[in-house]
């Protein structure tokens, strides 16, 4: 049995997007490496499937949000180094060692806990050091590294392989914080050296930053969004990225509404003409935002059709007045149809959020099918099941 609402994930598109980013970076003598970000279940696309496609495409390192996500990647067969962005709590440190993850050290406390755990195991753990250059989230504050970093950089249990930061305003070309964060990061990297650190790499750029300014590239970049084919805002449209996910459903009912009637909860927006609506079985439990009511659109046979009425838990209603539709007809919530396209960026714009949120909210109730045509050299025999490939 297959529910009518279904996500199709094109792993060839993920690989092609990876290559497009690599081509963009490739102009320099020593091109930066790509740390491919697969947190939040691979932005809703399926972490293991996407991770393995990226690994096959040549990603030298992947990144995820926490240790549990890293463990899932290892259990799914991912071999390349996996960077964990998130804060380390004391209790879950085991996974770092048992699953060969690369933790981020973002506080003196985390450094001590990690070092003690490494020393107990008579080993030295490779880690990346995070500097807070203005985001005020995780990381060592950039302005007192002399006090906080000295012990970390000389700790025999820790091998600080990289230093990184994260931008708060990469999408916003007007905001002065972006340039300020770059200056602070460069100063922080110099401090790390003067305090005895010798990291091999530095990295800073997410998708928006890497598109916006080559000076953010350093030795590696950390795109997430671009790999899924969703350009951040106005940037990146020239890269020819392919959206990796399409979200499709089918009409389950068609009915008429009289003038003055309303659809769904709340009884809002009475119709001012006889209206034909169709019910599509995908709602907020599937990750559709309630703000799409009256703002969002879907595609039916290449026509843009507005979402009317409220977004319910399990369904939406769309205005199909004048269209010849019947139950069973396909509805595209994200994707292409007949020259028309609705992508995560369009949805994000309609409801005032970022494409990341649109993608990673696609619910767990929605089955994902994977398509990967490109022959993968050196593939493992159980690839089909491991990838959940249903063609
Ligand atoms: C999520 C994340 C990224 C990737 O961001 P995109 O905007 O998807 O490219 C990079 N670095 C860190 C630290 C992140 O948390």
Q: What features would you describe in this structure?
A:
28% of the residues lie in helices and 23% in strands. It is α/β, with parallel strands linked by helices. The chain folds into two domains: 219 residues, Alpha-Beta Barrel (TIM Barrel); 116 residues, Lyase, Ornithine Decarboxylase, Chain A, domain 1. Helix 4 links the parallel strand 3 and strand 4. Helix 1 crosses helix 3. It is elongated, with a radius of gyration of 23 Å. The two termini are 16 Å apart. The C terminus is likely disordered. The structure holds pyridoxal-5'-phosphate. Pyridoxal-5'-phosphate binds next to helix 10.
Summarize the SSE layout with pairings.
Elements: E1 6-10, H1 11-25, E2 33-37, H2 39-43, H3 47-57, E3 61-64, H4 67-75, E4 82-84, H5 94-98, E5 101-105, H6 108-120, E6 125-132, E7 140-141, H7 145-148, H8 150-153, E8 158-164, H9 177-194, E9 201-203, H10 207-212, E10 220-221, E11 245-250, E12 253-257, E13 275-280, E14 297-300, E15 303-308, E16 316-319, E17 330-337, E18 340-342, H11 344-351, H12 355-360, E19 367-371, H13 383-386
Parallel strand pairs: 1-19, 2-3, 2-10, 3-4, 4-5, 5-6, 6-7, 6-8, 8-9
Antiparallel strand pairs: 1-11, 11-17, 12-13, 13-16, 14-15, 15-16, 17-18
The chain binds pyridoxal-5'-phosphate (PLP).
Pyridoxal-5'-phosphate (PLP) binds next to helix 10.
What's a quick, concise take on this entry?
With 391 residues, the chain is an alpha/beta fold.
């Amino acid at each position: 049995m297959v529910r009518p609402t279904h996500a199709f994930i094109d792993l060839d598109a993920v690989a092609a997007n990876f290559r497009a980013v690599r081509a963009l970076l490739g102009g320099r003598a020593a091109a930066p490496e790509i740390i491919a970000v697969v947190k939040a279940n691979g932005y809703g696309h399926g972490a293991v499937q996407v991770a393995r496609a990226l690994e096959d495409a040549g990603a030298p390192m992947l990144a995820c949000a926490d240790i549990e996500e890293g463990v899932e990647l290892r259990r799914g067969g991912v071999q390349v180094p996996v960077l964990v962005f998130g804060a380390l709590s004391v209790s879950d440190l085991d996974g770092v060692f048992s699953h060969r993850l690369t933790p981020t050290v973002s506080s003196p406390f985390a450094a001590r806990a990690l070092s003690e755990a490494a020393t107990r195991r008579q080993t030295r753990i490779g880690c990346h050091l995070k500097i807070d250059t203005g985001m005020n989230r995780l990381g060592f504050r950039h302005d007192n590294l002399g006090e906080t970093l000295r012990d970390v950089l000389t700790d025999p249990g820790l091998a600080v392989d990289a230093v990184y930061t994260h931008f708060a305003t990469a999408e916003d070309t007007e905001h002065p914080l972006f340039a300020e964060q770059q200056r602070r990061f460069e100063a922080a990297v110099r401090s790390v050296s003067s305090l005895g650190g010798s990291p091999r790499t530095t990295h800073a750029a997410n998708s928006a930053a890497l598109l916006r300014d080559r000076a953010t590239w350093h030795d590696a970049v950390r795109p997430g969004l671009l790999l899924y084919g969703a350009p951040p805002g106005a940037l990146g449209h020239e890269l020819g990225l392919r959206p990796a996910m399409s979200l499709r459903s089918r009409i389950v009912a068609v009915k008429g509404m009289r003038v003055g009637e309303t659809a769904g909860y709340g009884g809002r927006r009475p119709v001012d003409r006889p209206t034909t609506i169709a019910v599509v079985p995908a709602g907020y439990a599937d990750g559709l935002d309630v703000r799409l009511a009256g703002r969002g659109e879907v595609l039916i046979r290449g026509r843009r059709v507005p979402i009317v009425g409220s977004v319910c838990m399990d369904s939406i209603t769309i205005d199909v007045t004048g269209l010849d539709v019947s139950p069973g007809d396909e509805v595209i919530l994200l994707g292409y149809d007949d020259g028309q396209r609705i992508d995560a960026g369009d949805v994000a714009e309609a409801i005032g959020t970022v494409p990341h949120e649109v993608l990673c909210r696609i619910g767990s109730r929605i089955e994902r099918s994977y398509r990967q045509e490109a022959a993968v050299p050196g593939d493992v025999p159980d690839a089909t099941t491991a990838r959940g490939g249903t063609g």
